Amino acid sequence: MAANDRPPNQMEKEQIFGMAEKEMEYRVELFNKLTHTCFNKCIEKRYKEGELNMGENSCIDRCVSKYWQVVTNLIGQLLGSSRPPM
């Protein structure tokens, strides 16, 4: 077994778990910001119906798409890549 093929020790496992925890926190925060932003932009403040109408659905689709495109472009720039991660 090569040195790089060894199983992680306890400290490495804790570091990996900590990184995964931070990643999850980041994703939840991103989702919450996206939801809040697109909801405020696209949904009327006075509810008339129990379901989203076609205009609200279209607005949310465009908002989420643009938001995600901006986020992935920023991440790509931060990572120094010309192509954002998927």
Tell me the distance between the termini: 33 Å
Structural class: mainly alpha
Q: Which consecutive residue ranges, at least 5 long each, have pLDDT under 50?
A: none
Strand content: under 5%
In the CATH hierarchy, the third-tier topology is known as Helix Hairpins
Helix content range of the residues, please? Answer: 55-70%
Helices and strands, in order, run as HH
**Number of distinct helices:** 2
Could you explain the architecture of this structure?
This protein has 2 helices and no strands. It is mainly α. The chain has a single domain, classed as Helix Hairpins.
Layout of secondary structure:
Blueprint: H1 10-42, H2 54-78
Helix pairs in contact: 1-2
Task: Give short descriptive properties of this protein.
single chain; 86 residues; mainly alpha; Helix Hairpins; 2 helices; elongated
Brief write-up:
By secondary structure, the protein is mainly α.
